[in-house]
Amino acid sequence: MADEVVLLDLWVSPFGQRCRIALAEKGVEYEYSEQSLADKSDLLLRSNPVHKKVPVLLHAGRPVCESLVILEYIDETWPPEPEKKKESPRLLPSDPYARARARFWADYVDKKLFDCQTRLWKLRAGDAAHEQAKRDMAEALGTLEAELGEGDYFGGEAFGYLDVVLVPFVAWFHAYERLAGFAVAEICPRLVAWGERCKGRDSVAKTLTDPEKVYEFALYLKAKFGAK
C-alpha cells in the first residue's frame, strides 16, 4: 500500500493521457481507474473536492490533482536512477531557464490551445464566434510550431516535459480539421511531423486515442452543448 499508485482518468482526456505517458516513461506501475463524466464516483469527488474532475493521481492513498502538477510530482517522485537514465528520463530540464520556458509553454497549451479546442465544439458552425475560434486555433498551432522550430522535440533532441504535455492533443488534430475545415499538416507540417515522431515511442503509441473516436466524442460534446 505504501507505494500503491492509482490514476483516476477518462479514456479520451488529453490531460489524463499526459499523466499516463509520464508514468510509462518512468516505468511506474499503476492501477487505471476509468471515471464517468455523467456519474462521478465518490472516490473522485473525495479525491478532488475542489474541481471534481480527472485526472487525479493517488499515491499511497494521497491525491495529487491537476495534470501539470501531477507531471511534476511524477518527475520528482520517480527520478532517474544513474544506471537507468535512458529508461527513466527526467522530464523537466535541469536548467532553471529551460524549466521556466517549458512551464510557460505548458500553460499556453492548457489556456490557449484548449480554449480554442473547446470553442470549436461549443460554438455553432458558421457563427462569427466559431469563425474566430477557427482562426485562433490555426494561430495557436502555428505559435507552437514556431516554438518547436527545427528541433526533434520541444526540449531539443530529447523527449521531455512539454512533449508530454502537448502530444495527447495530436489525437485531436483530426477533429480540429473536421470542425474547423483546415488541414493541420498544411499550416503546421513540422508540428505534425513532431507528433508522428512522438508516436514512435511506446509510451505515446499505447496511450493516444484513435482520432476517429476522438472526433466522435467531439460530436457528442457539440450535441450536448447544442452546437450541432
From TrEMBL:
Coiled-coil boundaries: none
InterPro entries (UniProt xref): Glutathione-S-Trfase_C-like, Glutathione-S-Trfase_C_sf, Glutathione_S-Trfase, Glutathione_S-Trfase_N, GST_C_Tau, Omega/Tau-like, Thioredoxin-like_sf
Q: Which GO terms describe its cellular component?
A: cytosol
Which EC number(s) does the record attach to this protein? 2.5.1.18
GO BP: glutathione metabolic process
GST C-terminal domain location is 95-217
Looking at its record, which EC class is this enzyme?
A: transferase
GST N-terminal domain residues are 3-82
Q: Per UniProt, which keywords does this protein have? A: Cytoplasm, Transferase
One Pfam family, short name? GST_C_2
Single GO molecular function? glutathione transferase activity
Gene3D superfamilies assigned to the protein according to its UniProt record, in alphabetical order: 1.20.1050.10, Glutaredoxin
Q: Outline what the protein does.
A: Is involved in the conjugation of reduced glutathione to a wide number of exogenous and endogenous hydrophobic electrophiles.
- Name the chain's protein: Glutathione S-transferase
Source organism: Oryza nivara
